[in-house]
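Q: A reviewer asked whether we had any structural model of the full assembly, not just the individual parts. We don't, so I'm hoping you can provide one. Inputs are below.
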Amino acid sequence: MIPKQIRSYVLREGRMTPAQSRSLDIHWEAFGIAPEDIGETKDLYSSPLTVEVGFGMGDSLLEMAISYPERNFLGIEVHRPGVGHLLMGIHDNAISNLRVVRADGLSVLKEHIPASSVAILQLFFPDPWPKKKHHKRRLINPAFLDIAANVLRVEGIIHIATDWANYAEEIRDCLNGDQRFAETTPPNRALTKYEKRGVKLGHEVADIAYRLNK
Ligand SMILES: C[S@@+](CC[C@H](N)C(=O)[O-])C[C@H]1O[C@@H](n2cnc3c(N)ncnc32)[C@H](O)[C@@H]1O
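A: Here is a predicted structure for the entire assembly that you could use as a starting point for your response.
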């Protein structure tokens, strides 16, 4: 029997608004990429590439793509309403440096992103899985760092933000224990939707960034 893969997300689809659903139908072809086509989509690699896993509704990723037209962005998310919402944003702002994948980011990184192709790998407020019995669902662990080290180019950066202090500590311990990475200054980023909610509740945000050594 094939062991069931532990997932870092639960697909609570929620309702798609008619606009999100229409956007998925109309704009997927132009801005969506199937995981198996990522390696072949050569224009993705024509400028430094930022990959974000778990962009949620995607507003902060869109803001970054608009702010940095000289970079390319690839957003990966499992949540369909968020994918529909971001596709709409890409179309409405007429930008050409952001593409979207709807799939499990872990599998996409492991199986479809070419080695040494990513300048920044970012994960902002990945589900914290606060209960101890659910910690195994947390995305960042030593196995994830193997995957990150493979897709990042030399001196590429893994950038993680979380408002869960205990998760931040776990992430730092994990990165500090890995000789391939060295702590660095977090790159600029946009404020995310999830973060805005946390900040209102008084949560402290940790931005953690490590560079892949030569
Ligand atoms: C707490 S939300 C944060 C969303 C967004 N980054 C923000 O800060 O507003 C975490 C998001 O990560 C997504 N996610 C978790 N694991 C994922 C995976 N393996 N692949 C793709 N998306 C994932 C979830 O669907 C969810 O939208």
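A: Points you may want to mention in the reply: The beta strands are 49-53, 72-77, 98-102, 118-124, 152-162, 181-183, 206-212. Residues 141 and 174 are 6 Å apart (CA to CA).
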